[in-house]
Amino acid sequence: MRVIYVTEFRFFQTPDRKVWTPNLHRYNWWSRLLDVFSDVLVVARVDFVESVPGDFSRADGYGVKFYKLPYYIGPLGWVANYRKIISEINKINFFGSAVILSMPGIISYLVYRSLNGYPYSVYVIGDPNMVFSRGVSKHALRPIIRYLFTRHQKTVCHNASVISYVTKNDLQKRYPTQKKIKSFRFSDVDLNINDYANKGKKYVKSKKIKLVFVGMFFELYKNQLNLIRALKILKKFDLDFELSMIGDGRYLNICKKMAQKLSLENVSFLGALPKWKMIDQMRKSDIFILPSRAEGLPRAIIQAMAQGIVCLATNVGGISDILNPEQLIKTGNPIDIANKIIDLSMNPKEMTRIASRNLKLSKQFSESNQQRKRVEFYNQIRKVSESYRSKSFKTSSPEISVIMSAYNSAKYIKEAVESILFQSFGNFEFIIIDDGSTDGTKKILKEFSQQDPRIKLICRRKNIGQPGFVRNLNFGLKIARGRYIARMDADDVSHAKRFEKQIDFFLKHPETFLLATMARVIDKDGKTLFTRKIRSKNLNIDLVSRNLLVHSSIMFLNDKKTSYREKILYSQDYDLYLRLIAENKKISCLRMPLVKFRVYPISSSQNFKRERQILFSEKSREFHRQRVTFGQDEYEKFDPEKLLEIDADIVNSRIMLEYKIRNAIKKEDLKNAEKQFQKYFKIYGKNRQILFLRLMSRSRKRLVIFRFISKLFRLSSW
């Protein structure tokens, strides 16, 4: 099962499509979720930049992808991008996934509104009522923002299916959930065994007091200015001190100017530091200080406690859960801050005791302990999401039956299956027949079937080649319960709204029996080569001359009569279309690419397969002419083995010759290409497109130019 994690943190993407972060939300942070979920989709603001500073860390990676929302900063930026944000959120398919909303956050609230009753979990890390209180935030819209954010968070927490807090009691009282809902508590601090000091610091009387502060400067609720003012008081008492301030943000320069104005030379502004440098600075310090006016449970305090040093902080949020009274500052005013520093620094024995106590308590927050609690939380939201999904399937029969046959498709099967499971239209059953795979495909499919009850997996013991493929499709049709049948191939990819768009078309055009879509043709690495457009105004006429449809894009009515003919080993889809045309059943096409159709480099096996497809499509056209002329065809007398034995070199149909010409040009076999050109002109006369192709293939230089133009305008699959 996928987890969708919604966060207020901002990220950055470079031209190589890698996502970066300046804070702790790097890849290792997100990969914690992979202990329970198959993959992670992070919904967040992402800015596109040319490069990032050297101390940034990768945020995406294996199993972790980002859904990029418009980048903005502040209320005005949010207002300017509101419509775009809503539009992007509405595109997300939440059905079948676990959802975690990080609060406080306006993005999480907007996602909550779009869920429409779908279960979700909440991770509460802060209190907007405190963050936007008077004296903490100076924003002109502070009272309105405070009221709305607090109200939103109470609503989201109250309606949550599962909830977790970072505090022991504080946030639970302010933002309660329903009594029947299971509640958890854990921190998102990242403390590995190497991040701990061996023992608590031993304090002695010293002339200099080394202080350290860690916090972002995007807002001033960390009370940075009053901390600097408190140092002026210490200076008046002739106390020697040194303060290192770690963090970055828009108010950093204001704090620097304040230190200069008060002539405090011993204040160092170190900016944002990587974790190891921050921990090293903490170990060199005597006291960690955080005189905040609003907090949840600050990670920085826990990290400082793990270094075995004294921590001073105001009694807000969940700070009293981890610090004893001796380390709590009464208020955040400069006098109280200064007095607390003076009182403790005069008693090194007490500081040694407190430091040892802090180190011992911090071990409760080790990564192994916290991950165990996180996994319990993740498992609960997964359980709730799976229960909701199962109930929704039991209450109604599937609208669509999706049929896929897979053989040795381990490289692409995960992407193909997920593109179906994460459809915006979720009322379907997914019938997958594994045709005796030996490369790990079966294992991947079994994992999916255990996670999603919509999947019906049938495993064949032995692969019998192309005949088995056609039989698998017919078996899928036989057991299908849906009103519609949708086809999918094991190496293709469906657009997230494919089913939604196709069902909508069927409802508006009830005369349609089969509906295809256009497709983006991709290579083996997933790179788009060109869009396969269908310009036909009447497919029931134009399909008679050649196959224009991508098989994995089709959806048709399940009349329990339609099936594939098993002796048409290749191009069985084209034979189906021609039979429907003979029965006067309407075939239509959506003018939008809703499928990615994968093609592979030319090889002897691919060449053989394409030639067989052409031979069987020619036979299907012959059967169609027989049905039109005589009312029935000679399919029962047809022996596919004889067709397989035919040498493709002696077949001179128009489509076969066109294929041979293009194939020769791709291989740069200009001599063979000229031979095929002459054969084509002799049988079918001169054709403008073929003449132009011949002109361009006369020299390698022209051929290079033609290939460049073809790629530039995506005219073909060169």
Essential attributes:
718 residues; alpha/beta; Rossmann fold; Spore Coat Polysaccharide Biosynthesis Protein SpsA, Chain A; 4 domains; 9-stranded mixed β-sheet; 25 helices; 24 strands; elongated; disordered C terminus
Concise summary:
The chain is of the alpha/beta class. The chain folds into 4 domains: about 1-185, Rossmann fold, CATH 3.40.50; about 195-365, Glycogen Phosphorylase B (Rossmann fold), CATH 3.40.50.2000; about 395-635, Spore Coat Polysaccharide Biosynthesis Protein SpsA, Chain A, CATH 3.90.550.10; about 650-718, no CATH class.
**End-to-end span in angstroms?**
38 Å
Q: Under the CATH scheme, which architecture of the largest domain would be assigned? A: Alpha-Beta Complex
What structural class do helix, strand and pairing data support?
alpha/beta
What's the overall average pLDDT, rounded? 87
Tell me the name of the CATH class of the largest domain. Alpha Beta
Beta-strand proportion: 15-25%
Name the assembly state.
single chain
Cα Rg = 33 Å
